[in-house]
Amino acid sequence: MSQGEANRPSGHRRSPARRPGWRGVGRVLLSLTSHHTFVLGVVVAAGGFAAAIRGLLDGDGVLGVLTLTGAALAGTALACASIIQFGRRERRR
User: Fold this and answer.
1) Distance CA 16, CA 82 (A)
2) Residue ranges in 1-93 assigned as alpha helix (H)
3) Residue 45, burial from CB neighbour count under 10 angstroms (0-12, 13-18, 19+)
4) Cβ contacts of 33 within 8 Å, gap of 6 or more
5) Can you give the pTM of this predicted structure?
6) How far apart are CA 68 and CA 60, in angstroms?
């Protein structure tokens, strides 16, 4: 028995090694330079605008339509910010 095995409690198993390129999903989505952020912004913008137009056609309340329009504008801003950050990053290289 090796010295390392003698110090381990019984039943202790080593944790599996992480994959070399794994960084975690949360950090990737919060980064403005990630393509995930761009895709998220486009999806939110498209869904928000589509839902706002549907709300207008169905005769929903003003507050509901304005909320959906705000979400669409936030998605558009997120997509634009990721494009601007990508351009700044490429210019620095």
Assistant:
1) 35
2) 3-7, 25-30, 35-58, 62-92
3) buried
4) 82, 85, 86, 89
5) 0.63
6) 11
- For residue range 55-70, list pLDDT tens digits in order: 999 988 999 999 999 9
The 3-state DSSP class for residue 27 equals helix
Give burial (CB, 10 Å; 0-12/13-18/19+) of 42.
middle
Q: How many Å apart are CA 46 and CA 42, to the nearest integer?
A: 6
59: left (phi over 0), alpha (psi -120 to 50) or beta: left
Chain segment 8-17, per-residue pLDDT in tens: 566 666 666 6
Please name the amino acid found at residue 37.
T
**Residue 45 main-chain phi, psi, to 5 deg:** -65, -45
